[in-house]
Amino acid sequence: MNRKKEQILSCIQPTGEMHLGNFLGAIQNWVKLQNEYHCYYGVVDYHAMTMPLESNMLRQNINRMLIDLMACGIQPENLFLQSQIPEHTELGWILGCITPFGELSRQTQFKDKSQHLEEIKGQSITCGLFTYPVLQAADILIYHANQVPVGKDQEQHLELARNIAERFNKLFKCDYFALPECLFTEIPKVMSLADPIKKMSKSLGAKHYIGLFEEEGIIRTKVKTAVSSAGGNSGKISPGVENLLGLLHTLGSPSVYDELLNEELSGRLRYERLKEAVSDTLVEFTSRLRNKRESLMENEVESIERVYDSSQVIRQVAKQTLAEVRDIVGLSVMRQTKTNFMGIK
Ligand code: TRP
């Protein structure tokens, strides 16, 4: 395969059921990138341990995410499970030792999540949550990834990863780590069905999102009860209708979209009809994914084992990086006995 030289890497936390917003906002793009680039995609189970967890739930969520990603079209050979590659945490430790405490304290995601934990009685804010972005930097740098497809919310973490890479290169007078950049792509905004001024999210509750593998009947009910008119007589398209039209635009037939948009603009659109068109589109689209998922589930253990196998292959790259890093920072005897991997005297 003729691949461009960029190394793409992105990761997702195993959070359970994936929804349409996750798919259209990220995973669909990951799938496409596989055709052109060398891609690494990780399920970051160590990151999932930074918030309160329960072991059975974690196990279930990990397995579910691996299967779901493959059902979406992520090739198993591009997929790894973070905890199968312990070099991530080892590099995380080394990088943590060159990361200023102050810079980590300024991470807004840490501030938001720790505030959230404080509001839940009895939950402590852990060191893992604090050093989360260092492990994330290790995930990226260990494969020398230079393009990282992420959402805007990860921009600060990526900036930190770049700073860590630069600091490492400067401190050890080497040009070792590639400086990773965010890869932002134009993505459709998918809003909550029940509260269309908010982003589609599972934490808002079941009626707010469409699960990617949800049953037809449930999808139809959710779309039927979606908020569709809240725009008043301002002459503007209401957020709910805009969201439904947006889904049609992204996943449906262009001619149906054009027709319904024109009707809306001239004030003739019956929302029942819009919802029916959206339901049909979603049901058709998700049924393909559901079928693929079902076939993977027929042999669940074997399907999941494919990712364990590919993790071992991908691990070889991580091992090589670790050997080089250990050498650069002075942890191995290699430097005295052999020419340094990087040719540094
Ligand atoms: N922090 C990311 C998120 O919550 C997940 C993540 C972990 C990640 N490691 C990564 C994303 C490396 C990109 C690259 O979405």
Helical content (DSSP H or I, runs of 4+): 55-70%
Number of strands: 5
Strand line-up of the largest beta sheet: 1-2-3
Q: Which structural class matches the secondary elements?
A: mainly alpha
- What is the residue-mean pLDDT, rounded to a whole number? 93
Cα separation of the termini: 37 Å
Task: Explain the overall architecture.
The mean pLDDT is 93. Helix 3 packs across helix 12, helix 4 packs across helix 7 (127-141) and helix 9 (216-224) runs antiparallel to helix 12. 55% of the residues lie in helices and 6% in strands. The chain is mainly alpha-helical. The protein has 14 helices and five strands. Tryptophan is lined by residues 9-11, 13, 44, 47, 136, 139-140, 148, 150, 154, 157.
Give me some keywords for this one.
345 residues; mainly alpha; three-stranded parallel beta sheet; two-stranded parallel sheet; 55% helix; binds tryptophan
Compact summary:
By secondary structure, the chain is mainly alpha-helical. It is 55% helix and 6% strand. The chain has a three-stranded parallel beta sheet.
Q: What order do the helices and strands come in, and which of them pair?
A:
Elements: E1 7-12, H1 20-33, E2 38-43, H2 45-48, H3 55-72, E3 79-81, H4 87-96, H5 101-105, H6 108-119, H7 127-141, E4 147-149, H8 155-171, E5 181-183, H9 216-224, H10 239-251, H11 254-265, H12 271-297, H13 300-329, H14 334-337
Parallel strand pairs: 1-2, 2-3, 4-5
Helix pairs in contact: 3-12, 4-7, 4-13, 7-8, 9-12, 10-12
The chain binds tryptophan.
